[in-house]
Design brief:
Layout: H1 2-7, H2 17-32, H3 39-45, H4 52-59, H5 65-77, E1 84-94, E2 104-108, E3 113-127, E4 132-140, H6 145-158, H7 185-201, E5 209-211, H8 219-227, E6 231-233, E7 243-245, E8 259-262, E9 273-279, E10 282-287
Parallel strand pairs: 1-5, 5-6
Antiparallel strand pairs: 1-3, 2-3, 3-4, 7-8, 9-10
Helix pairs in contact: 2-3, 3-4
Length: 292
């Protein structure tokens, strides 16, 4: 217990002293107990001053967890000579019932399908030297009506349609270009989390890269990262279409061509090759091209 209290001293600017004492007792009980973690179980494993009512009061207290995560990281985990990446990912916890706040159906990669449960999106700082991840922000994902409608529309569009209902090839008549800066409600929620974190850090750590999974390997996620003054690192979809910049002559009429031929991932021009490394039977080739 004294060691935990010493570690929690840096959290004084974020929470009152009474809440900090409750936090230390709850943390001690959760580290010591086995089996399912419940408020009753925490009260049984907590030391003096950790009654059931105290545990209840703690979990009903509004706590700025994002601020506490940052204070703890800055005091005990930060290394001045290290380089850090900002990463985000979503985790899904299965949950039965009907009355839990935020209960919905979310896609879980472990199950390979959508399951009923709760989803949480986490932002972490990744140490490139220690190869460790340190969470600095987490929020529960509560989908709005607009997000549910968009998800349902995408699912309907993927279903095969009979030939009589298929849309003819080409662009629909009267359709207009979508604005470049239009972001989905999901990206707006993540962007708000990133901007709040960058404001909280206030330049203490120079962050330049945002790491996301393949779900965000698209143009809209790239625009979201650029609006936050970050570069996106993500995995492209297997059917993503990238084009080389056009360097041919001007056609003589209309606007100048912006895109050239489509990029062949198995035959990338050597002029974009930057580095080649070989480890055992694995060869890694790094290419770099200017975004147009």
């Amino acid at each position: 217990m004294p060691d935990i209290l010493a570690l929690f001293q840096c959290l004084h600017p974020g929470v009152p002293a009474a809440t900090l004492r409750q936090f230390s007792r709850v943390a001690f009980a959760m580290l010591a107990m086995t089996g399912r973690v419940t408020m009753l179980g925490i009260s049984r494993w907590a030391a003096r001053g950790g009654s059931y009512r105290t545990v209840q009061r703690f979990f009903y207290t509004l706590i700025p967890w994002a601020t506490l995560f940052w204070l703890f990281f800055r005091q005990h985990l930060y290394r001045s000579g290290d380089a850090y990446l900002l990463a985000g990912d979503e985790v899904v916890v299965t949950k039965a019932g009907k009355h839990t706040y935020g209960l919905d159906r979310f896609f879980a990669s472990l199950y390979g399908k959508s399951v009923p449960g709760l989803a949480f999106f986490t932002l972490s700082l990744i140490s490139t030297q220690e190869r460790r991840s340190f969470p600095v922000g987490i929020e529960q994902v509560v989908r709005t009506a607009a997000e549910k409608a968009a998800s349902k529309a995408r699912a309907e569009a993927k279903k095969p349609k009979p030939p009589t209902q298929r849309r003819p090839p080409g662009r629909p008549k009267g359709s207009r270009n979508q604005p470049q800066g239009t972001l989905s409600p999901e990206l707006l929620r993540i962007q708000a989390m990133i901007e709040a974190l960058l404001q909280r850090i206030a330049g203490f750590i120079p962050l330049a890269y945002l790491v996301l999974d393949g779900h965000f390997g698209n143009h809209h996620a790239l625009q979201m990262a650029l609006q936050c003054h970050l570069h996106l690192i993500a995995k492209l979809r297997c059917d993503s279409a990238l084009y080389l910049p056009y360097d041919g002559p001007y056609g003589g009429h209309g606007p100048r061509r912006k895109y050239g031929r489509r990029l062949d991932y198995s035959n990338i021009p050597e002029q974009y090759l930057k580095e080649t490394t070989v480890e055992g039977h694995l060869q890694t080739r790094i290419y770099q091209a200017q975004r147009v």
